[in-house]
Specification:
heterodimer; A: 212 residues; 3-stranded mixed sheet; 6 helices; elongated; B: 310 residues; alpha+beta; 4-stranded mixed sheet; 15% strand; globular
């Protein structure tokens, strides 16, 4: 009789210990890993001073190669104004003749004439539709006179490449301008070669041919 | 003569029963060893005691974390010969990151894929990246019909291009299924993975409806001089084999206020990134003023990744 009671007490004790361990394990599993107070957020100081967003103003080469080679072996360059100083401007020129100085240029920009953008009073400059002169680098202002939707998107930050900081309190941002991507004489961008597709690694299966 | 059963056989002689038992046991042991053999290849070479007893990232104190980071920096030097800095970039209060993508200007050039590949120390031969670009037929939004393996000149006539990466959902199913809490959503909305805690079960990979999680089938092979030394524990540090990885919005850059690498690489400006809690941010301007939509909205996961056509 005594032995039986001992067995029952032992079994009950074991059951309690096992159940307790089980409950503790489950509770530990349910517990979210806690954050030490000092590690959850960045403690970096904030500044209220805003850095600038800068639009690139590229240096535009104002000279074109004449096709001749100088005595130093370098191609002879000539600025726009050098030729156009004593030539009568032709406001109706809308295409590039296959002969002559501008022959190599690819011009596909709607029905614009050369002088829609180039300033006939100073060929080293551009002009606005209102006739005010504009520097060659200021393509953003020139182009946005017509391309208002692209300009709106540019201002909203959804057109044109950028680099730098999303947070202007911690650094500036650089924006590309129109002519960084678009040739002003042929603004439609040509197709580009895509970077190579992903390769299959061990464990991945070849998907079915999906190109229609 | 009376037949003699095995139990009455002469002592010393091996009975048929014993022989069969022995053969069975040997066969069993061999099968068991064979079944476990792949595990031996999987176990990381020399798992040290330090690695074995390491705490969960969120339970490490400052000193413990410093030691862990230093250990990973050392192993990058030993394994790859590269001097790297592994930081612990934490979110800022008042910031929740959002991403918007202008499908009207995306040309499918995969420059973002390539930038991610380099920035995040992906395996070079595997051409790993957190971004997949799907070539889609115009008029269709069926993700499953997209072709991720297009090549050659883009954009093609009648197609549009849909880059897909982690959507940093507000209700991430990948986090719900993780049996060991190796992945969670941080206070700035970025869903992260503790690569030291991940057991590689791949439940999260199956749970993600955007196919945004990838498994490291092998230790990444990267030449020493191509390793990006600017690394983060939860971000772009070199992942071991056998763990899951995913896009973390370049947290080693964005938590310092910089733009993500895929955005800087985009030549068309299709990508817009910023703080969703700041009404003047570029991403908020898109969400407030344009018709945006999310992929697989019906799943109710509330992604912080939006698409729009300009």
């Amino acid at each position: 009789m005594k032995r039986e009671w001992g067995g029952i007490v032992f079994s009950l004790g074991l059951a309690v210990v096992l159940a307790g361990t089980g409950v503790l394990l489950v509770l530990d599993g349910l517990r979210e890993p806690s954050w030490p107070d000092d590690r959850r957020f960045s403690r970096e100081e904030t500044s209220s001073r805003l850095n600038r967003e800068e639009v690139r103003m590229p240096e535009v080469e104002l000279a074109m190669a004449t096709g001749e080679t100088g005595p130093d072996g370098q191609p002879v360059m000539q600025t726009c104004a050098e030729c156009h100083a004593d030539r009568r401007p032709n406001p109706h020129a809308r295409s590039i003749s296959s002969k002559g100085f501008h022959a190599g240029m690819d011009y596909h920009h709607g029905a614009q004439s050369c002088l829609t953008c180039h300033d006939m009073k100073n060929y080293d400059k551009l002009h606005t539709v209102a006739g005010r002169p504009l520097s060659m680098s200021n393509s953003l202002k020139l182009c946005s006179q017509c391309h208002v939707f692209q300009h709106r998107d540019f201002v909203d930050g959804v057109h044109g490449g950028m680099s730098g900081h999303w947070d202007l309190t911690r650094g500036g941002r650089q924006r590309q301008t129109c002519i960084d991507c678009h040739d002003p004489h042929h603004p439609a961008t040509p197709p580009v070669e895509a970077e190579p597709p992903p390769v299959l690694v061990r464990g991945e299966t070849e998907p079915e041919e999906k190109t229609p | 003569m009376k037949p003699v059963c095995a139990c009455h056989a002469k002592p010393g002689a091996i009975s048929r029963r014993t022989a069969l038992k022995g053969a069975g046991a040997m066969l069993g042991a061999a099968a068991f060893a064979k079944a476990l053999a792949p595990l031996a290849n999987w176990a990381r070479e020399e798992l040290t005691v330090e690695e074995f007893v390491q705490k969960h990232y969120r339970e490490l104190d400052a000193e413990g974390l410093k030691q862990v980071l230093a250990r990973h920096e050392r192993s990058a030097l030993e394994d790859y010969g590269a001097e790297v800095t592994i930081g612990d970039h934490r979110p800022r209060e008042g910031v929740v990151f959002g991403y918007a993508l202008n499908l009207g200007v995306c040309i499918g050039c995969r420059k973002c894929v390539e930038a991610c590949h380099r920035e995040n120390n992906h395996d070079r031969p595997g051409r790993g990246s957190y971004i997949r670009v799907l070539e889609m037929e115009k008029g269709s939004m069926d993700l499953e019909k997209g072709n991720a393996r297009y090549e050659g000149l883009v954009p093609r006539e009648g197609r549009f291009y849909l880059p897909v990466q982690c959507h940093q959902c507000e209700h991430p199913p990948c986090v719900d299924v993780c049996p060991v809490e190796a992945t969670w959503r941080e206070d700035d909305g970025i869903v992260v993975v503790d690569y030291d805690w991940c057991i590689g079960c791949r439940y999260c990979e199956a749970a993600c409806p955007y196919h945004a999680r990838k498994f490291n089938w092998r230790k990444p092979a990267i030449p020493k001089d191509e390793i990006n030394p600017d690394q983060s524990y939860l971000g772009n540090r070199i992942r071991p084999a056998g763990v899951i990885e995913k896009c973390h919005f370049c947290l080693h850059r964005t938590r310092e206020g910089r733009l993500p690498a895929c955005l800087e690489a985009c030549p068309t400006g299709a990508r817009v990134f910023g703080n969703l809690l700041d009404p003047s941010s570029a991403v908020r301007k898109v969400i407030d003023h344009r018709r945006v939509y999310v992929l697989k909205e019906e799943l109710g996961l509330k992604p912080n990744f939006f698409y729009f056509f300009d």
